[in-house]
């Protein structure tokens, strides 16, 4: 058996050696292998079989044809084998062989695939980092917008409270004083005295209502007496208007927060108390403040009906949870709510004190 030549797209590849494989570069799709067998008797009747190990599963019956044709061979290493039989049907099973290596294109090489995998991971990592950064920017923008909105609300409340107190409150006070003067002058005229008494009573009631509205809009105790006293007054006022028994354990908080932070914390407590009055159906509630070296923990607890977490998730606005959470985040703290049907609700607010306030004694 002899392998005579290897033709790559009709061009011979030489020289052929059993020890050296034939390498086919990418882009060369068709090749032919010519072979023959030496015989002195009826050489024209010699029959052949060949197989490309690694590609062909079975031998190919070539008959007397002395050329094997291949095209579009996948990249890889192969061994071409050919055997022959003489005119008597005796096969030379040893035959001849030739190693063939089909080289892959660059985009199918291991180094290119490795670089592609590394590049893909890099792109995914950069895309993930970009998305995280974008999400953080959106969070910061949303947080900043919430801060501005809450600050704007507080400023507007302060303005309306001042106008109610200085304008409407003063005018009502004048009406009341004038009515009292008319009441004195009408002592001898019962038909006018009753009217003046009604005006005095109505003006006094309106003044109290205006003061109450102004207090809710902007508690004057907060600016004059500090955060601790303002919280005490608020809790006492809520307790006086409901059947709920309130217990206070307040560690002094004055000078730990600036005015904006103090009103923010005040609103959180106010919203929590409103939830207890409106939704809890409780008989007792407790408000406690614990002061640590570098933090403050505020706990508001009631023994009411509580609610399932799904209820708070589906109706967060009904409990004011969104606003409370936003305000606590503005203070750099964390709000945790623990509740369940029939076991009350506990709101825990943990605030980290600024460096300037950590060394203060209370």
Please provide a written account of the structure.
With 362 residues, the chain is α+β, with helices and mostly antiparallel strands. The chain folds into 3 domains: 2-106, Sandwich (Immunoglobulin-like); 109-218, no CATH class; 219-358, Histidine kinase-like ATPase, C-terminal domain (Heat Shock Protein 90). Helix content is 46%, strand content 26%. It has helices spanning 110-185, 190-217, 220-224, 227-240, 259-280, 309-314, 321-330, 355-358, and strands at 2-8, 11-13, 22-24, 30-36, 47-53, 60-63, 67-71, 76-85, 91-102, 245-250, 284-291, 295-302, 334-339, 345-352. Helix 1 runs antiparallel to helix 2 and helix 5 (259-280) runs antiparallel to helix 7. The longest helix is centred in the middle third of the chain and has 76 residues, at 110-185. The mean pLDDT is 83.
Write the layout of secondary structure elements.
Layout lengths: L1 E7 L2 E3 L8 E3 L5 E7 L10 E7 L6 E4 L3 E5 L4 E10 L5 E12 L7 H76 L4 H28 L2 H5 L2 H14 L4 E6 L8 H22 L3 E8 L3 E8 L6 H6 L6 H10 L3 E6 L5 E8 L2 H4 L4
Parallel strand pairs: 3-9, 10-11
Antiparallel strand pairs: 1-2, 1-4, 4-7, 5-6, 5-8, 8-9, 11-12, 12-14, 13-14
Helix pairs in contact: 1-2, 1-7, 4-5, 5-7
Summarize the structure.
With 362 residues, this protein is an alpha+beta fold. Helices cover 46% and strands 26% of the residues. It has 3 domains: 2-106, Sandwich (Immunoglobulin-like), CATH 2.60.40.10; 109-218, no CATH class; 219-358, Histidine kinase-like ATPase, C-terminal domain (Heat Shock Protein 90, 2-Layer Sandwich), CATH 3.30.565.10.
